[in-house]
User: Fold Fructose-1,6-bisphosphatase, cytosolic from Arachis hypogaea.
Amino acid sequence: MDHEGEAKRTDLMTITRFVLNEQSKYPESRGDFTILLNHIVLGCKYVCSAVNKAGLAKLLGLAGETNVQGEEQKKLDVLSNEVFVNALISSGRTCLLVSEELEEAVFVKPKQRGKYIVVFDPLDGSSNIECGVSIGTIFGIYAAKDKDKVTLDDVLQPGNRMLAAGYCMYGSSCMFVISTGHGVNGFTLDPSLGEFILTHPNIKIPKKGNIYSVNEGNAKNWEKPITEYVDNCKFPQDGSSPKSLRYVGSMVADIHRTLLYGGIFMYPADKKSPDGKLRLLYEVFPMSYLLEQAGGQAFTGKGRALDLVPKKIHERSPVILGSYEDVEHVKAFYAASKANGA
Assistant:
C-alpha cells in the first residue's frame, strides 16, 4: 500500500475547507453562509447519485404533472426539487426559496428562518436524461433585508446584488462551480471520498473563443444582429477561420464548456419569444454572475444582464454571454443595427 500517496489524499482542498478558509477572512462571520452552502452541496450529491442510477431505479419518464413553465415534469425533476427544498429549509439559514418547478415562492416558517434567499433550477436540461447528456443544478443566493418581514420584493432584485451563484453539473464527472464574488472556482466530486475537491482554481474564461453556441433551429425568427453575427461566425469578414458550432441544449453543459474553452452562448430574443426563453432569476442571473466573475460578459441585446430588475419570479429574458471580446463583437452588430434604424 502506498502510505505516502494515501496521506496526500487527506491534504486535499475540499469545498468545505475552501469555504471555511474564505470565512476566516471575515472575523464578523458566524458561519451561516458555510452552513447553507454545505446543505446545497449535500443536495447536489444526492441528486448526482439519483441521476447516476435513474434508469435502474425507474426514475426516468414523466411524473404526470406539468410545472409552471408548461413543461411536463420528469420524475427526477420532482425528486430534485424536493431534495433541494428540504435541504435548504433544514439548513435553518433561508427565509425564501424560488424554484423553477414551483409556481409560488416558498416562505420558510419563522422558526426555521435565516437571512438568505435561494433561487434555483433543481434539474436543468432534464429532457436530455434518457440520452445521457450532461444536466445540472443552477442556484443563486441573495440576502433578505429582514428575515422576519421577508416579502417577494426581497427576491425581485437585480442580479448584481447576488451574494453568490453556481451550478453543479452531472455528467462524466460531477462538478460544482461557484463564485462568492471573488472569482470562480470548480470542484470535482471524488466518488471514493464523497467529497468535492478543488480541481479548477480561479477559473478565467479566455478573452476570445472559437466556439459559438446557439439553437439554429430558431434562425428564421432571429433579430437582424444575431443573424448577421452568426453568419460572420461561419463566414468571417476579416478572413479569419470560422467558429465551430457546439450546442448541447442543456444550459449547464453549454455554459460549462464556454467557461472553460471560451466562446459565446446565446439564447436571444426573437419573433417567437420576444422576451427570451430562459428564466431570469435562476438561469440568466446565476450564469451571468459566474461569467462576469471569470472575466467574461453577459448582455441581453439591450444592456448588461445583471442590471435587469425582475418584476415576476418566473420572468424570462434573452441572454448572450461568454468571452469578453466575443460579446463585444455581438454588441457591435446591435449598435450598427440601431444606428441604421433597424
In short: The chain has a mean pLDDT of 91. The radius of gyration is 20 Å. The first helix runs from residue 3 to 8.
